[in-house]
Automatic annotation (TrEMBL):
UniProt keyword annotation of Protease present: yes
InterPro entries: MetalloPept_cat_dom_sf, Neurolysin/TOP_dom2, Neurolysin/TOP_N, Pept_M3A_M3B, Pept_M3A_M3B_dom
Localization of this protein: Cytoplasm
Entry keyword set: Cytoplasm, Hydrolase, Metal-binding, Metalloprotease, Protease, Zinc
Gene Ontology CC: one annotated term: mitochondrial intermembrane space
Record-level Gene Ontology MF annotations: metal ion binding; metalloendopeptidase activity
Organism: Rozella allomycis (strain CSF55)
Known cofactor(s): Zn(2+)
Coarse class of the protein's main subcellular location: cytoplasm
Protein name in UniProt: Zincin
Length: 662
């Protein structure tokens, strides 16, 4: 097996490598561009591009990955810098009119091609068109101008959010209910000899109040401060929506959503609206029932304080009463549960499950070529044929300068080398930040960390099990609204009582499993207020889609107010503009927010129809590997899904999974 990754590059080597990589790639494109239209064929034009793309993909991992994981600051900095050069180069390449001309000439020849080659050619052509290369010069200029403005607006929007320093102050009395430990961590201010706690608009502060503060007025003030910050973002959003519409129309699309969805599994705005509408109709009765329960709880609570209840649940009530209900009905104690999930037992159990279900064999190997001594390396082979499939790394503990979230990095794609006809094997890394074991105490995972672990290793499996001809389609390079579905499906194992039993073992009391009564409560608690919570997700999805299909401005806050109450069943407080802090809408999720629910619905369909009754089914696991993970992006998501399910996908399993009964 060839692993071409090199993690011992110095800062200057990274810089040099990026320069040689860029000039080498550019030379290939130059060569292709020199082909006259009548001489250009798939073999002499497209294959060289596919080949350099694959090579580039591996080499660029050596350049960009160190910024996330290298223990050496100098190397991380060099990686950031070198990556900028790569990004600039990739924009340059995407905008090459000379290459577009050659690709177009090849396409017009209509050569007889295999399905993946055909798709490669189509996708290349489509990318160029979507970048405006099919337009006349004047329109191209216009498009460039709009894109530049849009990129500036996005920077401005997020900088306004980052720079925001809104604070709100409360007395200790007003903060009744907020844990004392938390109060200790806050800054204080004295005004007229009275002491106040200063709270920022960062999530931990906001939720500490919204979840815990008994005083309704305190929660209302916190919510109001949060929902009225970043006012300067309102005109920015309006402008961006207008420019996105303009850009789409210059390219010949009806609106921005139509443009965005062209390359997604959903394909058209109509499909997305139909999906959202259908879910809304089914979730609304469930949400209403849940809301009634919250009202009842609020009434009891207020009466116990000797106060009147006016009959409504407000935006600032939800988290507080949700938490109260969680404690009252389910008594979930995260700290206690954690003691049953040592990293060691979870890792062992999880690797076991993935090996069995996907019919793989993992072997941990001694490996000196890693970026840090904590990193573990595993070889993967097919359990039946012993065929080598790939390799993955686990880098699980925090350290200075390391990437702070959990993610999968597909470092080396799998593909077939056109010169040797040999398969190159994929290599992927899972990077996370679980607490490090200490003297006498192992690393313990909260249940949501166990879920994250399954999820990210799921992406790794997608990388490892994918078997495409071209690197461009490898692994997770699927339609964006499909990329989470395979991993989300694997999360379901973390909610199965038999699996939780298998994964758990008390870290001190060897052999003691998580009590089944606790497991039962955990599984039930998962669906607490699932109707309302999903309606909230639906609201964001609707809002985003309406905004980006409108023929003219709908007014960003006006639309928000209208849809919020109608869909979430909880009104938006008067004279607030939470949309000014809705980062997703400017941060790449435009006409894409629906994707969260979309992939969840399909992941539930896969799990419930194929695994729910037999979570360790090797037969279905193999089908999953072959039909969902294997093709990567070389097929459309909806076709893969239909083949795997043997029918059209439906929302029913998802609804069932969140406790909805018709
Ligand atoms: Zn993911």
């Amino acid at each position: 097996m060839k692993n071409l990754l090199n993690f011992s590059l110095t800062a200057s080597e990274i810089k040099n490598l990026s320069q040689t990589l860029i000039s080498k790639s550019r030379a290939v494109y130059d060569q292709v561009s020199a082909l006259s239209s009548d001489r250009a064929t798939f073999k002499n034009a497209i294959i060289p591009i596919a080949k350099i793309e694959a090579e580039y993909s591996v080499a660029s991992a050596n350049i960009y990955f160190p910024q996330y994981v290298s223990p050496i600051k100098e190397v991380r900095d060099a990686s950031v810098e070198a990556n900028k050069a790569l990004e600039e180069f990739s924009i340059e390449t995407d905008m090459r009119a000379d290459i577009y001309k050659v690709v177009l000439a090849v396409a017009e020849k209509n050569e007889e091609l295999g399905p993946e080659d055909k798709r490669l050619l189509e996708k290349m052509l489509l990318d160029y068109k979507r970048n405006g290369l099919g337009l006349n010069e004047k329109k191209q200029e216009l498009l460039k101008e709009i894109k530049k403005k849009l990129s500036n607006l996005a920077i401005q929007f997020s900088s306004n959010m980052n720079e925001d320093n809104t604070t709100v102050i409360f007395t200790e009395e007003e903060l009744e209910g907020v844990p004392a430990d938390y109060l200790k961590s806050l800054n204080k201010r004295v005004i007229d000899q009275k002491e106040y706690f200063v709270l920022t608009m960062k999530y931990p502060d906001v939720f500490a109040v919204l979840k815990n503060a008994v005083n309704e007025e305190t929660r209302r003030r916190m919510d109001y401060s949060y929902s009225t910050k970043c006012k300067a973002n309102l005109p920015i959003l309006e402008e961006a929506v207008r420019l996105r519409r303009d850009a789409a129309q210059v390219l010949g699309y009806e609106d921005h959503a139509t443009f965005r969805l062209e390359t997604r599994m959903a394909k058209t705005p109509e499909n997305v609206f139909k999906f959202l509408e259908d879910l809304k109709n089914k979730l609304t009765p469930l949400g209403e029932k849940e809301l009634e329960r919250l009202r009842q709880l609020k009434k009891e609570h207020l009466e116990s304080l000797g106060k009147q209840f006016n009959g409504s649940i407000e935006a600032f009530d939800f988290h507080f009463y949700h938490k109260m209900l969680m404690e009252k009905d389910y008594q979930i104690n995260e700290e206690e549960i954690k003691e049953y999930f040592s990293l060691e037992s979870v890792t062992q159990g999880m690797l076991d499950i993935y090996q069995k279900v996907l019919n793989l064999k993992f072997t941990e190997i001694e490996n000196k070529n890693v970026w840090h001594q904590d990193v573990r390396t595993f070889n993967v082979i097919d359990a039946t044929s012993d065929e080598v499939i790939g390799q993955f790394y686990l880098d699980l503990f925090p350290r200075d300068g390391k990437y702070t979230h959990a993610a999968c990095f597909g470092l080396q794609p799998g593909y077939i080398d056109v010169d040797t006809n040999e398969r190159c094997y994929p290599v992927a890394a899972m990077v996370a930040n679980f607490s490090k074991p200490m003297e006498g105490k192992p690393s313990l995972l909260k249940h949501n960390e166990v879920v994250t672990y399954f999820h990210e290793l799921g992406h790794v499996m997608h990388q490892i099990c994918s078997k495409t001809k071209h690197a461009r389609f490898h692994g997770t390079k699927v339609e964006r609204d499909f990329v989470e579905a395979p991993s989300q499906m694997l999360e379901n194992w973390c909610w199965e009582p038999t699996i939780l039993h298998k994964l758990s073992e008390h870290y001190q009391r060897k052999g003691e499993k998580l009590p089944s009564e606790t497991i039962e409560r955990m599984v039930k608690a998962k669906n607490l207020n699932a109707g309302l919570l999903n309606l909230r997700q639906l609201f964001f999805g609707f809002y985003d889609m309406k905004l980006h299909t409108a023929k003219e401005s709908l007014g960003a806050t006006k639309l928000w107010d209208e849809l919020k109450e109608n869909i979430t069943l909880i009104p938006n407080p008067h004279n607030t503009w939470p949309v000014a802090s809705f980062g997703h809408i400017m941060g790449g999720y435009d006409a894409g927010y629906y994707g969260y629910l979309w992939s969840q619905v399909f992941s539930a369909d896969m799990f419930f129809s194929k695994f729910k009754n037999n979570v360790m089914s090797v037969e279905n696991g193999l089908q999953y590997r072959k039909l969902i993970l294997g093709p990567g992006g070389s097929r459309d998501g909806d076709n893969m899904l239909r083949d795997f399910l043997g029918r059209d996908p439906t929302v029913d399993p998802f609804l069932k999974s969140i406790g909805y009964n018709k």
